């Protein structure tokens, strides 16, 4: 099970943050095929958000066949392959890079320093 963390100052709607975290959980292997998610009510209480917010996130993931809700049983991970469309992947990478570069450049790091550090991180993981 993943731990949901919300950032109310990010400007990203809460339901979208829930969707992104479920998709990331699947992509990273933290959520497995058939794994049960918290009920809408339980997750809404845990995150201190409106039931409709969680319901909207779950519904969108159901439409994409990533989640499956079985009446009386719960909501389960239905799909673990190709959960992120190529366009969505590219958009997310761009968003991450914009946020990351804004912080890095505000500290005075150059592009060369940032690229070198990213390469060092990649090398150290091998």
TrEMBL record:
It comes from the Bacteria. Transmembrane segments: none annotated. Signal peptide: none annotated. It comes from Parabacteroides faecis. This is GntR family transcriptional regulator. PROSITE patterns: HTH_GNTR. InterPro entries: Tscrpt_reg_HTH_GntR, WH-like_DNA-bd_sf, WH_DNA-bd_sf. The keyword Transcription regulation applies. The keyword DNA-binding applies. Keywords: DNA-binding, Transcription, Transcription regulation. Residues 12-80 form the HTH gntR-type domain. SMART domains: HTH_GNTR.
């Amino acid at each position: 099970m993943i731990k949901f963390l919300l950032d109310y100052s990010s400007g990203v709607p809460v339901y979208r943050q829930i969707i992104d975290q479920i998709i990331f959980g699947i992509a990273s292997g933290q959520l497995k095929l058939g794994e049960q998610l918290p009920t809408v009510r339980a997750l809404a209480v845990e995150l201190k958000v409106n039931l409709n917010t969680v319901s909207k996130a779950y519904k969108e993931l159901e439409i994409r066949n990533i989640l499956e809700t079985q009446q009386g049983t719960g909501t389960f991970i239905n799909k673990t392959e190709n959960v992120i469309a190529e366009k969505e992947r590219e958009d997310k990478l761009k968003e991450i890079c914009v946020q990351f570069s804004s912080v890095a450049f505000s500290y005075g790091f150059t592009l060369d320093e940032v690229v070198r550090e990213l390469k060092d991180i990649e090398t150290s993981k091998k």
